[in-house]
Amino acid sequence: MTTSPLQSSLLTWLDTRAEMAVYAITHGRLAYGNQSFDAQMRDDATLLAEFIARPRSLPAHVPPVAGKAADATPVALPAQTLRDGTHADASDRIEAQEWLVPTCDGPIVIGCFRTQATSSANHALLRVALHDALTDLPNRSLLEDRLFQAIARSRRNRKLAALLYLDLDQFKPVNDRYGHQAGDIVLQTVAGRMLACVRETDTVARLGGDEFAIVLDEIDQQEQAEIVAAKLIAAIGEPITLPEGATVNVSCSIGVVLCPTNGVNLISLMQAADQAMYTCKGTGSGRYCLSTAAPPAIEPGNWMEDNEAEMIGVPEIDRQHETLIALANRLHRAIEDSEDYVLQSALLDELVSYTQYHFASEEALMDRYKDPNAEAHKRQHAQLVAQVQFFRHALSNSDSQMILSALRPWLIRHIRSYDRALGAFLMTRKAREPGASPS
Questions:
Q1: Which residues contact 379 (CB under 8 A, 6 or more apart)?
Q2: β strands within 102-220, DSSP E
Q3: What is residue 307's three-state secondary structure?
Q4: I want to staple 165 with a disulfide (CB 3.0 to 4.6 A). Which of 277, 298, 405, 406 is the partner?
Q5: What's residue 400's pLDDT?
Q6: How far is CA 330 from each of CA 79, 310, 324, 404, rounded to the nearest angstrom?
Q7: Band of residue 77 on the pLDDT scale cut at 50, 70, 90
């Protein structure tokens, strides 16, 4: 059978350019391995031989494949561990996702795994996207994910979760007198002191400027949150010595909310914490205030709500944004409920497919109305689609929580930046051309 130019090009790319290690095993022998696979396995002949010889069994819920039907559906096999992650760096763990493909010549095992270099690069990129550059604390996007997880655990385990919003007092005079470099040192010092006041399971995040937030996960009573708030006030209030010898003092005001006491929804809790913090600032520095907010009568229970994306005023695109958020929520529920890999993978595929359709719809509007920002917007689309490869790596390596941490900013940031600008442009064009409607 001849190979078409398209097939030849695909095989060349798979063999020489694909970052994923891809291989095929048949009759107990390695039938194919691309360059990434060879690079990963060439220095450990023992591991390679053991890996190829491993028995592959079907999952318990999948019946054995009958006969040698050439058109039988590939079956996902249990993940194969190549290397366990060390305690210090669990990202070293490598697992291969495999499928059994029945053919007329017998079953073929097709597998792939991400290489160590790819894994390190993906984790590095994700860390940059989800952490504050100055303090290395989680940023707002990662805080929201951690808070949502804490809310979910609070519901399941009938314990409390607390959110503390913290704003520094007397910070502006430090910047004004000693300069921004001194201000940066103060922020880094304060970040370290906050981390020393909480448990490893808690989250300290920088929201921007001199505002921080802390999630206390699974606490038994309100007093525990108050004790942490008091410790924070005392620690932050200690003098800070700058490199040139000057000593400065800052204090803080803290707003404290509890889940479920003040609400069970991410947005309402964050709003209540912000309000409590500013109420506290009005009573003097170095204090904390407990929120008096009552839970809203009706609170949404989704991971992402439609209003988080902010409608851009173009009906066609707004409807697509609602669908994207619904699909993301379905994937989140499947991960939270520990559904099997096949379902999670199918939901991720559905989300990705609809995202590509959505991008095509936007690009058609850009071309139709000659959007001057179209080139940059399309480049952003290409980058977002490329980042989906990271989600697939994470899912195939049982790193579902990493998907949850990355998925919200991946979706929401684009809508709030490029899509909002596109909406404003299309609305302007619509106003100028009454007969033309972007929807």
A1: none
A2: 108-114, 160-169, 203-208, 211-219
A3: helix
A4: 277
A5: 62
A6: 23, 20, 10, 12
A7: confident
